[in-house]
């Protein structure tokens, strides 16, 4: 056995030696030319090695594919394989050879899923199950049932890299047992893997990884300094990169003579910019620059030049001047790097193979190869290099140099402990074997693991390799639970050097692995704990400290406390990452004690202190210079990062076990110690005087019986900063820990300030609040905008929670723990309101008259906050606090009106709206109404019960909002209680704290100073006019009201009641209020005052008696004034009228605004042309009036007026694709009603559901073949009119204008296109409008019905022989045609018919000729025969198609025609009539005349001569239209309709029969087709009879018993026939209406099926009756049927040349995915090679093409190519899922159009960056299909879009 093992190893080693040789020789072998065929050969060689010489290839490639790939010819040793040779496959272009097909990756048996989220995929986060908000699940793992009623947050991954991974199956990510069905599967046993395969797998991985490291080790050329960049240095360096012959089998490694200039990616420049620069520097053709730039973007680097070093150095200089990053590398070295790229791709591909997915062992082997040491570095000795970011030390990983700073306190020195990793893994990878080797902090440069080298070389790689490597790390390394800790340890060991590179030199930090690895590793509790134990927190802290202060990384002993933050470092946003990492570790660390027993907190404080008190508000009042440094934005944005870090520490402290709570106390002591040393000016990092730290001038104050000290610090004179992160930390410690410790932390903290002004720690917060107030009232005008901006950031952005709210909390802490007099003294000193308090308002020094009331108001506000804002005083859980914050914001924005989601978000501070719980809270609070129309959005309405939570004095409401809220609340109370509005007042929301430490938050209200303040304020308001001081009165009463409850006052002090009754100068607060009650001007406050007294009366019964002695009237006043009339007090009245006026002005403004929008916004027009103009309800329908949109003149006698129109091809004419199961079913499902589901039978519904489940989108209509789609010319028009002369001039103008501009113009002038000057619709013909009104009678047209002997006139004409009879008929026709044309023509054109002339008639003739000419030019393939029947027919048919699926809502089909469509149809129809009349009037010639044709038409139609025509697919509606109905000869409209209908039925029956016979496999599907509703027994008999007759005529030999034997078949065939008749009947009805508008007297039987209703309208018998005539022998129809059958037999027409059936169902584009992300998860990423592309789906055929994809040199994209070459369609309509938009294309031009998708809030996703899941809105999709596609609006939508954009500049504008 042992012998056997050794054999195996020897063999493997031999094999590996061969591989090494191959790797070294590769560049030479392939002549230094790297291409796809070389890639393939490398893969082949790697597979040879890894499968033990091809032995076990089947483990990677199951099946036969590569069985003899190596031609080992039975020789087990594998010597026959020559690495360098070509395999037996042709080494040509097939780069797909030797590529593993990636497996669908849902399965992850017994291990974490670790699927990387790709762009466009959904990420599911269950906030209920996840350990925190970072825990995520992929679409495969997420099971909605498992998370019922949980708070689930879905977002769409918007990043193309670093999107995170799925945590399913990770035991440390979830609170509960979250394992999906893919986890619980059993894994295959590793015993199945042969030992030799194990050996070769490990060996191969080790060899190739070592090779990659060796190659990359040589690439540190980028760190050569400038002066070394001589040709010789380059060549030397390149030669020194020869691979070590000792390791690589003593093979020589010759270098190449030639070099490349390589260009590299960076994330600074944009693509366009880069192209420009490359173009400039290279001076080559622009296509070259574009190609290089594309390569760089895709791959990360590109070759720009090849040549000698000397040549390249010059070129590099010119490239360097453009700022692009380039390097000169030898061909060999570049070749090797490309080999590395292929090797790493190969590793990734095998990790995705079934072999790795099914077994555990290969995954372990992979980790082992990565975690083991680099193969041959053991005997290297470190060089004497100085440390330089990113460089190696003789192949060893360097460590940060150990420089000791002079200002480094002892507590930064730490001892490292050895990592606690599993022994077996340490041995296996020879890592972490003893302390002091690789990872303690004293060590020397060391030999790292392969993983560490790869991390270290990360920035040397290019983006393509980086991305591949990171994906291997996260999916295969980190997700391996056995190795996870080891990997984490190896990462942390070199973290400082990695951070150094990331922060300082990485060109493309977005591709760095740091965010990914940190998030994955540091959020694992075991890893986080290990890191804390090992002592790495300190190393990470010193890393960031060094970077922020010195722009270099220092070890802990290098921390220099005398340094300040560098703005340049702060400007580099990347540093936040390090704090995120720290935050993760601290949050997830499980041994909390460790954080507080060592010196970590002290060190953290040093880091936090870097931001303390910075920057100060700069003022230059004296110099009268107005400036302010803009650094504040940098500091403000840093603050939230820093504070999140300190908050994390405080949270950890609160998790300490009870016994360890003394640690909190010592932490607090440490912190306060630091604060006091700062205040004393002893802390080195903060220099007193420059910041807001100043030696405090403590002064003694006495008066009013108080003797106290206070410190002088006038806010308006001294430095003040908003940022005090140390104090925020202090506040969090107190808040989070106070409730858990028996010690009063406040008292403890307060002891530290002995000998100084004891209130100092709280003073900073107070100063900030006072400064805010001063800014708000406009005290700091000089500083202008920037200071207002600081106010905004501090008060309303994320800084709010860690700045402003902390300040309020600290002030509450202050009031809770210090004597009221001391506190109030400080308050009023800081507010500079002492003179106010002492009643000396007149001689004020600080605030002028204008500012003073504002400051008093703000101060009152401040007291309201202190008394009512108690969120942080109650020890609420974090989750509850977050929810409360969100809840309050939502309630106070939704209470005024219901809003859409985006509106809510714009009202709420961004940081609140961004919280993941936001939507969940919103759902609880509000009712949601989804959008119902085509342009609205979903609306949220606050639930009734939450209105009770509206608090007008909510701390974050602006004063305007406060007024609105007061009104709102009062009105609601009024509604509920019916109390008069005057009697209603608002109760303050005060409650007690349940934490003893904060029980006295209201103590300050008992100070005499506070009483004096209230006293002065009331006095002030009583002096003035009540209406001028509304806010102050309102607030002061509210403060008194809140104080009256005395809820947060401890018994040590006097009560508020006492101080309220205290008299000063003969009056008291109470007496002032009594006084107010007697003043009419204060009437609106009386109820509030009564409310206040009410509170006192309930507590102090004698209060009323005491006061009544002085105010006899009081008792009466206190009783609710029951007799009060509803009269509005004057103040209220004034306020109301002012408000009303404001509202009026606003409404006026709004109106103007929307008017403006309506006239200036083209956007609203592209919705649908249909709704633009609706006919006014006039009696007779009018043709467009003569109003020229160009010259704006009304009619002109001499001018011919007309409308512009568009002749284009439409491909909406479809045939039933009988061989396509889906579309066949769809064609016969639901023909008319929007909601056809009613008639869907069970089988069809099941079938559609199955298809939907299987296909994410589509299936596409088979529209790539002409068989199924027909493109025909149709006419459309925007209906706008102009004079012919103006039209001509306009065309000339356009031409000359186009020569001047270069942008993309929407119209193709060479195709005669022009835009309507008014609505920008594309048009290309002018058609005259010579008519007034259409008042022809419809009932007259339909007067002669088609019953009984209806066919007699036709029989007569069919057999006509008498020439004179023909002439007679012709004459009749002529008369009728002319009469029809003259009917509604304008009088000025009547001469036209009398062969007379006039100027306008002459002009008219010219116009008509020009129309002919124009149409001919436009439509060459269309045989223009001088008759417009074809065009009118096509247009009516396309109009009918567009109307399918629109519910007629009780009316007739023609009632659905829009005015615009009707105008178009009627104008052209009359033009056709005119033309016919002209032809009829023409003198006879030799050719068959027009009249001959008409008669001949009738003769064919009336006889069996018609049979060959319909067999070949004649369109019977067209036959009908070409007939020129001749009433006088008995060919009435109904009769002709019936005749053509008969032929139509025969044609359909014939085609259906032959198609059915041809598609036998689909018979079962056909039998399940849905049926028409009102089937009668006789119908089936008729249908079967017709089928059998046709079938016997076609192919009597085919056995159809399977079909006809089914009882279902007759009904199905009948239903199919009927459905095919419906479009014909609808068209007949539309045409009748186009001719005649006057439809009075038309009565249609109600409540019939659509087809019968149409029959009734058209005066023909119901279909069932008509069908029965086919069966009844002797009937006209029956005879024709048999003639048809015998014609078929006679001509032996079997089913081979079957004609097609027109598609009778609703014509639609393909089904879209229900959710946009389905496209990616369920379709696009199933094939993993798609990762970075922009797919577009053709909505006709379902083909997927690349939107950006175009080959170099071809300007035409794949989409355009598809439209032009592959799909039969006149336009392109694509869905672009990445950007959630539609792409419209028309003749090579294109634009985007909003896709019919809405986010969960019923809103259009204008910015797909939001990453919300998007849901299909079928209604909007249907509207798009109808209004844009079927109504020929694509070109108009594009034109309007292009017109409104100045420069569309390519697709990049996305
Ligand atoms: Zn998953
Ligand atoms: Zn899973
Ligand atoms: Zn859950
Ligand atoms: Zn005009
Ligand atoms: Zn127009
Ligand atoms: Zn297509």
From TrEMBL:
Q: Which InterPro entries match?
A: E3_ELL-like (IPR042065), E3_ligase_UBR-like_C (IPR044046), UBR1-like (IPR039164), UBR1-like_WH (IPR055194), WH_DNA-bd_sf (IPR036390), Znf_UBR (IPR003126)
Biological or metabolic pathway of the protein: Protein modification; protein ubiquitination
Catalytic reactions on record: S-ubiquitinyl-[E2 ubiquitin-conjugating enzyme]-L-cysteine + [acceptor protein]-L-lysine = [E2 ubiquitin-conjugating enzyme]-L-cysteine + N(6)-ubiquitinyl-[acceptor protein]-L-lysine
Its GO biological process annotations read:
protein ubiquitination; ubiquitin-dependent protein catabolic process via the N-end rule pathway
For this UniProt record, the keywords arranged alphabetically read as follows:
Metal-binding, Transferase, Ubl conjugation pathway, Zinc, Zinc-finger
Q: Which Pfam families match?
A: PRT6_C, WHD_UBR1, zf-UBR
Which GO molecular function entries does the Swiss-Prot or TrEMBL record give? ubiquitin protein ligase activity; zinc ion binding
Gene Ontology CC entries for this record:
cytoplasm; ubiquitin ligase complex
Does the entry feature the keyword Transferase, yes or no? yes
Zinc fingers (UBR-type): give the ranges: 111-185
Q: Cite the UBR-type domain residue spans from the record.
A: 111-185
Q: What is its EC number?
A: 2.3.2.27
Q: Which domain of life is it from?
A: Eukaryota
Which family does the record claim for this protein? Belongs to the E3 ubiquitin-protein ligase UBR1-like family.
Q: Entry's PANTHER family?
A: E3 UBIQUITIN-PROTEIN LIGASE UBR1, UBIQUITIN LIGASE E3 ALPHA-RELATED
Question: Main role?
Answer: Ubiquitin ligase protein which is a component of the N-end rule pathway. Recognizes and binds to proteins bearing specific N-terminal residues that are destabilizing according to the N-end rule, leading to their ubiquitination and subsequent degradation.
Q: What name does the UniProt record give this protein?
A: E3 ubiquitin-protein ligase
